[in-house]
Amino acid sequence: MDYQFSRNVPVSDEDPVGNILKVAGDPNIISFAGGLPAPELFPVEELKQVTDAVYDESGRQALQYSIANGDPELRDQIAKRMNKQGITCDTDNIIITTGSQQSIDLTAKCFINPGDTVIVEQPTYLCALDVFRSYGAHLVGVEMDDDGMKMDALEAAVQANPNTKFIYTIPSFQNPTGRTMPADRRQKMIDIADKYNVMILEDDPYGAIRFAGEDVAPVKTFEHEERVIYMSTFSKILAPGLRIGWVVAEKKLIKKFTLMKQTVDVHSDNLTQHIIAKYMATYNIDDHIAKIKQVYRKREGIMMDAIQEYFPENVHYSHPEGGLFIWVEVPGNINTQDLFNTCIANNVAFVPGEPFYADKVIPGTFRLNYSNMAEDQIKVGIQRLGKAIEETMNE
Ligand code: PMP
């Protein structure tokens, strides 16, 4: 059959990142390529217990169809958490989604007409780029430094693209760089958005996993008008297989999102929503997050010490205070694919930086993950990686 796909479907079947993850999945390879949370931290026993309780107490209701904006109990629990973080909201400001990936898709679905500009960090979360592209967005990348998106470059980008629909930002422990935008930049981002009347899409899956330094309030807490669509997820603070996230935004926008979500999946899995609501009512999720932070702090520390010991002097890398990732920039225009191949030959892997860039690619960059790696393997892997970088730089 010669399929006549819509314009939303990519022409190529190429899946470069999938291929890398496949190669990196070889058990002989120490892989820093994935972005997975540590499965040994999933609260399996607690989830099992609250699942039983849900079946016993409200099984028939949990297994029934439900409303598209999500279980009221769960929205209530999330609203309480959000208010504690300074985001003033009630349950009608919240819609439950099938993970942040769906929140990004829903936002794109509601706002992007082909040709509309979406401004993104350069580099950024590549699956968000894929979503925006699938709706025909014109992507404009904004240069970052160690403190995230540069605000003068952001203003220039918004000014140059009057059809900008929104700025997509991951302000805390960004994927892929691990960078965090300080409060003054968050304030400035709001000022720019106000001045040019654009929205901000704040994607915050990692903000709760701060293991060093001081908390920085979400961008949404700086707004004067309700122009920030805030989204987060249980993927990194509980378990990604649950596939539950949420959006906080103005009530009239949540109504539109609800209508649009109905057309996609009617509502997110109702049983899972009940399970998470019960978990949050029974346990203090912050106690669980504290355990995650402790483990990730240790792994990040081991990786950072090894990087300092084994990477060549002039290699630049981020120093994350939370989240899952470190970003590495090797100077001298090196070919990241060559470096990747050398690494695979030496049984270590990372994700090359190229796919994370919307337009202008900076060569010699790559992402390392430390959350899902046995501690004794981190040092060995970084030692191999350091050697491979040296070899590739000297070629
Ligand atoms: N946004 C970012 C920045 C992410 O890194 C991820 C997942 N790695 C997502 C969204 C999607 O998260 P979820 O599992 O909630 O769909």
Layout of secondary structure:
Elements: H1 16-24, E1 30-31, H2 44-62, H3 72-84, E2 94-97, H4 100-111, E3 117-122, H5 126-134, E4 138-145, E5 148-149, H6 151-160, E6 164-169, H7 183-196, E7 199-203, E8 228-233, E9 245-248, H8 251-265, H9 270-282, H10 285-310, E10 316-317, E11 325-329, H11 336-345, E12 348-349, E13 351-352, E14 365-369, H12 375-394
Parallel strand pairs: 1-12, 3-4, 3-6, 6-7, 7-8
Antiparallel strand pairs: 2-9, 4-5, 8-9, 10-11, 11-14, 13-14
Bound molecules: 4'-deoxy-4'-aminopyridoxal-5'-phosphate (PMP).
4'-deoxy-4'-aminopyridoxal-5'-phosphate is lined by residues 35, 99-101, 125, 170, 175, 203, 205, 233, 235, 240, 245.
Cofactor: pyridoxal 5'-phosphate
Domain Aminotransferase class I/classII large: 47-385
Keywords: Aminotransferase, Pyridoxal phosphate, Transferase
